[in-house]
Amino acid sequence: MKIGLISDTHGLLRPEALAALAGCDHLLHAGDIGRPEILDALRRIAPLTVVRGNNDEGLDWARELPERVELQLGGIDIHLVHQGTDVPARLPESVRVVVSGHSHRPLIEERDGRLWVNPGSAGPRRFKLPISVALLHIENGAVRAELVALQLTPT
Asked: Which protein family is named in the record (predicted)?
């Protein structure tokens, strides 16, 4: 199973991000979406699970979005939240992957027996940070993550 991870689009869904996520079985958006049309476009690729980011607060269309979600995909329990600092200190032991956004810094890290993934920002560039998404690959109970730096087309 291939799961696409995207975050911090801030109203900009790049064609390069859509191309990188094509063929995924499920998508996770870790918040700071910006516009509801982004979710519509992502849903055309694959089923989508999404959380509200701090920049989505107060937007009518985003009110119903949860702040965090725990779900199981491919037999792996995943905790999805916008800010890594909002992950509860005591997650259920079954959670093997934590996905967050917010910092715009791509990250794949093993911590306390869990895989922590931040896909970075797929939206407007901030500072000199890369524009990226990530992929989770689940096979036979094993999970691995990969960062995908987006090669932007000059305008």
From this structure: Belongs to the metallophosphoesterase superfamily. YfcE family.
